[in-house]
Specification:
This protein has a 5-stranded mixed sheet, with helices on both faces. Helix content is 34%, strand content 13%. It is globular. It is α/β, with parallel strands linked by helices. Helix 1 packs across helix 2. The protein has one domain: Phosphoglycerate mutase-like (Rossmann fold, 3-Layer(aba) Sandwich).
């Protein structure tokens, strides 16, 4: 059983901007090109599931238009992490003491003071992952880098990264597709 994890195309957001739950747009030509790349790769019967944020939902709809025989479903559980008061600010403008407090209490401190904790984020992504596993069918999630990293941990049996150094650090390019498989 395969889960294809597709990161949305590059957004219109300025470089270095924190925009986890902020609903930023993607240039239409970038979305169309990525959809044309992804659609032929999806096996028959694959369910397309997407984050409700426009950078993912628009891509999922473009893929579904090219592959109308595939089911499409929006699932808020695979939206990016909510970074609270940090949303819309550049990462470099975030007070270092605030950031360090978050990383020290990585599992339970809310990002940006009012956002999500890593534990809450992992719990909701974990519920979606468990539902996919229990359904027993291939799926493609059109989602975000944070969700993809969370799935890597879930696949390895980690339900929550307790420390910041446990969070996967490998880069995930815009438009990149990675696959996890379960027996």
């Amino acid at each position: 059983m395969r889960l294809a994890l597709v990161r949305h195309a590059q957004t219109d957001a300025a470089a270095g901007l924190c925009y986890g739950r902020t609903d930023v747009a993607v240039p239409p030509e970038a979305m169309r090109a990525l959809a044309e790349s992804i659609a032929p790769q999806l096996a028959p019967g694959t369910e397309i599931v997407c984050s409700p944020l426009q950078r993912c939902a628009g891509l999922a709809q473009a893929v579904a238009a090219l592959r109308p025989e595939l089911a499409l479903r929006i699932d808020a559980r695979i939206a990016e992490m909510d970074f609270g008061a940090w949303e819309g600010r550049t990462w470099s403008a975030i007070d270092r003491a605030e950031f360090d407090a978050w990383t020290r209490g990585f599992a339970d401190v809310r990002a940006g003071g009012s956002g999500e904790s890593t534990r809450a984020f992992m719990q909701r992504v974990g519920e979606a992952f468990d539902d996919w596993r229990d359904a027993g069918r291939d799926a493609a999630w059109i989602t975000h880098a944070g969700v993809i990293r969370a799935v890597w941990l879930l696949r390895a049996g980690v339900r929550c990264a307790e420390r910041a150094d446990q969070w996967p650090a490998q880069p995930i390019a815009f438009g990149e597709c990675v696959t996890v498989e379960l027996p």
